[in-house]
């Protein structure tokens, strides 16, 4: 699109640039993501002001900046940059009238499920489902700008930290299919209560049109109750026998990969995932339910699930390093539910081999944080690994103390570098190591280094 077209879409005025310049690259607020042909969005954040990075963005290849004031470089000037970013995303979607949009929310599994839905829908048409996590009022428009002109499907993760966040995201891009995975305790700190979280996540299904589909988790009562909040058709998924789309005969192989019979109104199909972790059954069911809104070709949906690979980094990536250490990198983030799920997978994958658990603190749990860490520490104790390495703040220490009570050896690392040293010191060939923590702890590169056999 040209700068003139974009300026018209956001009711902005073009300064210092030529109206027929084409924007061909990412529309991004992150100067590190700027590529040739980008439009750089100068957002003023709490810590930095994007306007200070305008020159740098132009040098990096951006053809113009979306900004709140003229900057001496080509700029589309608007009064509210963030609102304009949303309007721009909306305008992009409006240009593709046949586009099928899937929105995914929930307390855990959004990115994993978005990656699965993207891989399944790409069997049915060109699909934009960008890897990674960008799910906020600024991340989602960036992902929308990755739409290709031939796109038939767009799959978006929608995150919420407050009531109203998802309503905003759906006002930018209104999905036809809304998937709600779970109402857990992630971000309980900001929300205050699980009811508030349910209120926020349910905004997704409130936005759906009557000919849309709400895909709701039958196994999570707070999600199932959202059926009352939508005019769309409701399809439930889960392990429970009442679910519209469900799994029967679930088994897990020695590598921790689940297989099951996918039961749907369109018939049944056998699914064997290449991905690791029994918890993925639920995500795969949600994926099938979402895909069946657009197709009734169940065999192709099942085949695409069978072929699906890990896409985004740090979510149950299982590999063996040159020294024969099995590394489970699940270090992108952590909440009690996902740690328990990962411990279960670790046990299956280890199959009696020596296990080492590297666990950092789980952030943003609010008032229950200390108790949650103690509970997870006890779960580690029950698993009886050879060693637990805790990483980070006093919550991580609390977790370790609860594990030590079960007689398991525990050492503490103050940060990721100390953790890397302890890993190098203690981990031996033939062992299985799980890395898990909130992203801020920074364990992803430590796991990557071990997986690559890099020693420090
Ligand atoms: N259904 C599930 N149940 C339990 N754990 C899960 C489930 N799906 C994914 N996980 C695990 O939870 C963690 C986070 O997964 P993912 O990144 O997909 O969630 P998310 O909802 O996108 O998180 P965020 O809020 O950070 O965007 C990963 O460790 C993943 O393996
Ligand atoms: Mg995510």
From TrEMBL:
InterPro entries with a match to the protein in the record: Mur-like_cat_sf, Mur_ligase_C, Mur_ligase_C_dom_sf, Mur_ligase_cen, Mur_ligase_N, MurCDEF_CellWall_CoF430Synth, MurE/MurF_N, UDP-N-AcMur_synth
UniProt domain Mur ligase central: residue ranges: 104-291
Catalytic activity: D-alanyl-D-alanine + UDP-N-acetyl-alpha-D-muramoyl-L-alanyl-gamma-D-glutamyl-meso-2,6-diaminopimelate + ATP = UDP-N-acetyl-alpha-D-muramoyl-L-alanyl-gamma-D-glutamyl-meso-2,6-diaminopimeloyl-D-alanyl-D-alanine + ADP + phosphate + H(+)
Entry EC no(s): 6.3.2.10
Span of domain Mur ligase C-terminal: 314-438
UniProt keywords, alphabetically: ATP-binding, Cell cycle, Cell division, Cell shape, Cell wall biogenesis/degradation, Cytoplasm, Ligase, Nucleotide-binding, Peptidoglycan synthesis
GO molecular function terms noted in the UniProt entry: ligase activity
Positions bound to ATP: 106-112
Domain Mur ligase N-terminal catalytic as annotated: residue spans: 27-97
Pathway: Cell wall biogenesis; peptidoglycan biosynthesis
Annotated function: Involved in cell wall formation. Catalyzes the final step in the synthesis of UDP-N-acetylmuramoyl-pentapeptide, the precursor of murein.
Name listed for the protein in its UniProt record: UDP-N-acetylmuramoyl-tripeptide--D-alanyl-D-alanine ligase
Protein species of origin: Paractinoplanes lichenicola
């Amino acid at each position: 699109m040209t700068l003139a077209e974009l300026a018209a879409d956001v009711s902005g005025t073009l300064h210092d640039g030529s109206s027929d310049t084409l924007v061909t690259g990412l529309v991004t607020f992150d100067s590190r993501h700027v590529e040739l042909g980008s439009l750089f969005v100068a957002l003023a954040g709490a810590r930095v002001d994007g306007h200070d990075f305008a020159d740098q963005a132009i040098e990096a290849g951006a053809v113009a900046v979306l900004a709140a004031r003229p900057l001496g470089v080509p700029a589309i000037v608007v009064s509210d940059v963030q609102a304009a970013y949303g309007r721009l995303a909306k305008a992009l979607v409006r240009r593709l009238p046949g586009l099928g949009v899937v929105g995914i929310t929930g307390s855990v599994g959004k990115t994993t499920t978005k990656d699965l839905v993207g891989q399944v829908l790409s069997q049915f048409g060109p699909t934009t489902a960008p890897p990674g996590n960008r799910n906020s009022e600024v991340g989602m428009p960036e992902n929308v700008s990755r739409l290709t002109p031939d796109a038939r499907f767009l799959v978006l993760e929608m995150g919420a930290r407050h009531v109203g966040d998802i309503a905003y995201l759906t006002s930018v891009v209104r999905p036809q299919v809304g998937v709600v995975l779970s109402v857990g305790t992630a971000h309980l700190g900001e929300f205050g209560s699980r009811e508030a979280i349910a209120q926020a996540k349910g905004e997704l299904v409130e936005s759906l049109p009557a000919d849309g589909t709400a895909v709701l988790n039958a196994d999570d009562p707070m999600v199932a109750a959202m059926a009352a909040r939508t005019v769309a058709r409701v399809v439930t998924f889960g392990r429970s026998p009442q679910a519209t789309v469900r799994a029967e005969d679930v088994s897990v192989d020695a590598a921790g990969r689940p297989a099951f019979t996918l039961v749907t109104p369109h018939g049944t199909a056998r699914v064997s995932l290449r991905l690791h972790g029994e918890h993925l059954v639920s995500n795969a069911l949600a994926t099938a339910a979402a895909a069946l809104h657009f197709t009734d070709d169940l065999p192709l949906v099942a085949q695409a699930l069978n072929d699906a690979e890990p896409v985004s980094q740090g979510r149950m990536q299982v590999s063996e390093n040159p020294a024969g250490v099995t590394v489970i990198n699940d270090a992108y983030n952590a909440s009690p539910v996902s740690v328990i799920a990962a411990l279960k997978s670790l046990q299956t994958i280890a199959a009696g081999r020596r296990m080492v658990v590297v666990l950092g603190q789980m952030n943003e749990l609010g008032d229950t944080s200390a108790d949650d860490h103690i509970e997870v520490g006890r779960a580690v104790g029950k698993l009886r690994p050879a060693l637990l390495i805790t990483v980070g703040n006093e919550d991580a220490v609390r977790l370790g103390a609860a594990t030590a009570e079960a007689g398991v050896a525990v050492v503490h690392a103050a940060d990721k570098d100390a953790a890397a040293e302890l890993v190098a010191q203690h981990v031996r060939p033939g062992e299985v190591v799980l890395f898990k923590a909130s992203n801020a702890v920074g364990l992803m590169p430590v796991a990557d280094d071990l997986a690559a056999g890099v020693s420090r």
